[in-house]
Amino acid sequence: MNRRVVVTGIGAVAPGGVGVKPFWELLTAGRTATRRISFFDPAPFRSRIAAECDFDPVAAGLSAQDVTRLDRAAQFALVAAREAMLDSGLAVDADNAHRVGVSLGSAVGCTERLEREYVAISDAGQRWLVDPDRATPYLYDYLVPSSMAAELAWLAGAEGPATVVSAGCTSGIDAVGYAYELIQEGTADVMITGGTDAPISPITVACFDAIKATSAHNDDPEHALRPFDRTRNGFVLGEGAAVIVLEELAAARRRGAHVYAEVVGFASRGNAHHMTGLRADGREMAAAITAALDDARLDPTAVDYVNAHGTATRQNDVHETGAFKASLGPHAYRVPISSIKSMIGHSLGAIGALEVAASVLAMEHGVIPPTANLHEPDPQLDLDYVPLTAREQPVDVALTVGSGFGGFQSAMVLARPEVRA
Predict the structure, then answer these.
(1) Residue 421: which pLDDT band, with cuts at 50, 70 and 90?
(2) For a Cys-Cys bond, which of 41, 115, 170, 183 suits 410, CB 3.0-4.6 Å?
(3) pLDDT, averaged across the chain
(4) Where a domain ends, among 233, 254, 275?
(5) What's the pTM?
(6) Is residue 307 situated within a structural domain?
(7) Which pLDDT band, with edges at 50, 70 and 90, does 406 fall under?
């Protein structure tokens, strides 16, 4: 069985605004949402900046009980899922619930609440033996990331497969890829999928400080994240969520759903090489891109836009540029490429899903988001990275990629359904 899979709903919580509309407006305006960290005092850290969401859970529709019991990442996921389901017009009932599933990506799970609870029950780390009576009754949910998939399943009434995909920074795109494969093979008819993370906490900031992966442009937060720029010096942490409704094409058309795009190819590869190291020639990402295009049965010249991983680390920028040249051939010099991380930061397990959403919206509106802060292009990187300003251009086929610690590389191809008709 090889069924066609389409996007019929999108929801987002992102730096710069809650909802798909403000998310897309920020991207196409080329605005950045990076600023000095406000959630805690960042003074002790090397990197003191992040892309935070201005998120009021009650205003976003969550109950007081939800706010009390759910980690911030789970709150993001629920709000984005409600928007995606409303957008799709999806109705789950007793007749179809067992054919509706959930696939949610997250790199660090419920980090914020776990850290907060540890601080509370250990007297800020002074007690080796902690007092369990001082812990919240929801502590187990924070420990086990699968609790977030359960929340989405309960929200939707979905009784099909429900899982969390945790593969570092490719978690979001991998979760969507897994959902695509479940529908394609006939295991499910509908999947509520995407990624969520709320990693802006002292422990996460300290971890990335230790390996100097994050930017130290603390004096200029708005322009700190500079993918493909000669002056880049690392990424900026972000947070957020994107949830996407995927459906089998024929069923979506029968119910009159708006079809944004078709998922036509997906692949992931590992380099079995190094936890954080990448080969300069980009062979591992190139292999994933080639496999995804083969899955889509499309030639590289069909790609109209590439949504890059674009972290603003030298290693990644060189690796990606090499991968695009190796997989797309001469077409790599013609296709526009951009990084939305330049505007909304790197939200770890959420960013891959946000990038899928941005790629779908680029197809929907015929606008390619820019790479913000690209004022001094690295002379070693000679492709079209769409600097500073969005570009109006029809997009029939989009390629979005992800790269993660552990050597994980993923690629997804999206197309207008008529491309494969």
Answers:
(1) low
(2) 170
(3) 94
(4) 254
(5) 0.96
(6) yes
(7) confident
Q: 93-127 in b/e burial notation, b at 16+ Cβ within 10 A?
A: eeebeebbbbbbbbbbbbbbbbbebbeebeeeeee
Looking at the fold, whether 328 and 381 belong to one and the same domain comes out as yes
Q: Domain check: are 145 and 37 in the same one?
A: yes
Domain tally, the chain: 2
Q: Which sequence positions are flagged as catalytic?
A: 169, 309, 346
Residue ending a domain, choose from 254, 287, 303: 254
Please tell me the distance from the alpha carbon of residue 119 to that of residue 295, in angstroms, as a whole number. 47
CATH at 249: 3.40.47.10
pLDDT tens-place string over residues 162-206: 999 999 999 999 999 999 999 999 999 999 999 999 999 999 999
**pLDDT (tens digit, 9 = 90+) per residue, 82-116?**
999 999 999 999 999 999 999 999 999 999 998 88
Quote the domain boundaries for residue 73: 5-254
